[in-house]
Amino acid sequence: MDNSSLDPNLAGQLQKLQQKYAAMGQDLSSYLDGLLYADYLTYWDYIHLDTLLSLQNPKTQFPDEKVFIIYHQITELYFNLVLWELEQIAEKENLQETFFVERLDRINRYFELLENSFTVMVDGMEKEQFLKFRMSLLPASGFQSAQYRVIEICCTDMINLVSRDNRESFQEYSDLEQQVEHLYWRSGATELASGKKTLTLQQFEEKYLKKFKETGMRYRAKNLRKIYLQFFPESEPVKKRLRQLDQLANVLWPLAHLKSAARYLKLDPEDIKATGGTNWQKYLPPRFQRIQFFPELWTASETEEWGKAGVLKAIGN
Length: 317
Ligand code: HEM
What we know:
The chain has helices at residues 8-23, 28-37, 43-46, 49-52, 64-91, 97-117, 119-122, 127-133, 146-155, 164-167, 176-181, 199-218, 224-231, 236-265, 269-272, 280-283, 286-289, 300-304, 311-314. It has a single domain (66-314), classed as Up-down Bundle (Methane Monooxygenase Hydroxylase, Chain G, domain 1), CATH 1.20.58. It is mostly helical. It has 19 helices and no strands. Bound molecules: protoporphyrin IX containing FE. Residues 71-72, 75, 121, 141-143, 145, 148, 185, 188-189, 200, 254, 257, 260-261, 264-265, 275, 278, 280, 284 line the site of protoporphyrin IX containing FE.
């Protein structure tokens, strides 16, 4: 190739490209032809905008149902970003404190955004519309968010996700299958009157329980708590961020979420039917479950007070 009239930078780039393609037995010139005919990349194709905006399909005529759908989708996307960071931490070879701290900051930032934006639900829909369109969506519920559960499993050991009554009776390293039987959320979404599992819970367990067990096995030695205890047990910057994460994921987001349940479902017993009449008032407040991803970072009195501040305000008492 005579590159004499070419800009030396360009010639250098061409040479590198040729080497790259030759290494795979490919002819660069054919690929350059392809480049000649290819369209320029557009913003809308790159982020699949048309597809993205085709994914909102309300089941009713109520305009606010679109707000409800899109905000759930936004939340799932942020959950996905959280999982992306958790995975990178878990897979990182020779993990350094700076990397760890920066990734924890990202995770906390996503949760803060979710906490602060929950007003879109709390204040952003007409109650009359909500109570009607919600009935058309039964038995589907945000309760069935699998990503939320996977985040929990990637953040801590399964023992810390066991219901409070049963947590004491397990050893941390006892059978994971047994711990999964007593996961705290398996007593949520139960019928208020009979205590029976709702269809919401039954279908969720049927679809995802196996995946949760597998994830628990995979993250046994590399969940956030394990990584912290193994590599950075004395690091103050790490501990500070893990405490923030515990608050955000297990108190502040749940409280922001609880406010929406209180706003739409609390007053009238008829309204409560909009969730199928579940035990949510006894289940959702964080002080009942007392889930902590990093229990060793909290004092006995902090644990005792877990989620208390703010909860009464959140449910309007
Ligand atoms: C007006 C808005 C909302 C209301 C009234 C509401 C109501 C509820 C209720 C009552 C429960 C308890 C389960 C049950 O009894 O059926 C629940 C659980 C849950 N919801 Fe929502 N929700 C709302 C928005 C959202 C959004 C936007 C998300 C985001 C994905 C979400 C995710 C969840 C999750 C993850 C749980 C399980 C929480 C836990 O196990 O601690 N919810 N929701």
